């Protein structure tokens, strides 16, 4: 080969070598993006079908207290108190507990109201876990004129709202409907004012004859 040909071939050889070196430095697509291979493999496999969650009914909400609540419950003295049998009078349904200081404080006044007002009756519902003998001992220390019943806290009367605080008191009208609800302590004045507001006799009025005969227990 002549010197002229050698000089002419040199640039071509250098270009070929450079091309080989450049190719050797470049990575394959899989090497440049390792995740690409994984994505490709995953995409090739069918994804499991997404199952739709089963339709679930909305969470149940507690039913509100009935306008005309029913109450039939065994009392401490071995009798049964049935609210429906006391129509014609104003009935004070008092949720309380032996550990509740405001409840104990209002008991004497509720007892006097039950005794002195012919048109008003009271029933006490002990909302607590307590055995009957223990309640009997408590009532000997805190006697009242009205009947007392122990409420099953796991299954309270459904016609009334579950107490969120004690005492909680309902005033039931002669027609059996709820006239007023009190959360917190009550006294004779509050109850008699509520009765007057609902169309009943005002404090000091003559004792009305009940519209339906019902013997006080």
From TrEMBL:
Matching Pfam families: AhpC-TSA
Compartments it resides in: Cell envelope
Gene3D superfamilies given in the database record: Glutaredoxin
Organism of origin: Lysobacter gummosus
Annotated protein name in UniProt: TlpA family protein disulfide reductase
Keywords associated with the record: Cytochrome c-type biogenesis, Disulfide bond, Redox-active center, Signal
Stretches assigned to the Thioredoxin domain: 57-200
Region: Disordered, residue numbers: 28-71, 194-217
Range of residues in the leader sequence: 1-23
């Amino acid at each position: 080969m002549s010197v002229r040909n050698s000089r002419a071939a040199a640039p071509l050889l250098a270009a070929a070598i450079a091309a080989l070196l450049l190719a050797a430095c470049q990575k394959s697509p899989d090497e440049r993006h390792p995740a690409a291979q994984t994505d490709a493999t995953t995409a090739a496999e069918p994804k499991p079908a997404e199952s739709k969650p089963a339709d679930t009914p909305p969470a149940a909400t507690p039913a509100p207290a009935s306008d005309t609540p029913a109450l039939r419950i065994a009392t401490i003295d071995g009798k049964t108190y049935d609210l429906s049998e006391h129509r014609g009078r104003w009935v004070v349904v008092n949720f309380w507990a032996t550990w509740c200081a405001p409840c104990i404080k209002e008991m004497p006044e509720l007892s006097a109201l039950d005794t002195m007002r012919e048109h008003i009756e009271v029933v006490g519902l002990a909302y607590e876990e307590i055995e009957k003998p223990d309640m009997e001992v408590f009532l000997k220390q805190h006697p009242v004129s009205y009947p007392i019943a122990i409420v099953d806290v796991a299954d309270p009367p459904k016609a009334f709202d579950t107490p969120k605080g004690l005492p909680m008191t309902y005033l039931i009208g002669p027609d059996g409907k709820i006239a007023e609800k009190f959360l917190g302590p009550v006294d004779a004045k509050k109850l008699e004012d509520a009765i007057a507001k609902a169309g009943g006799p005002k404090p000091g009025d003559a004792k009305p004859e009940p519209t339906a005969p019902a013997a006080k227990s």
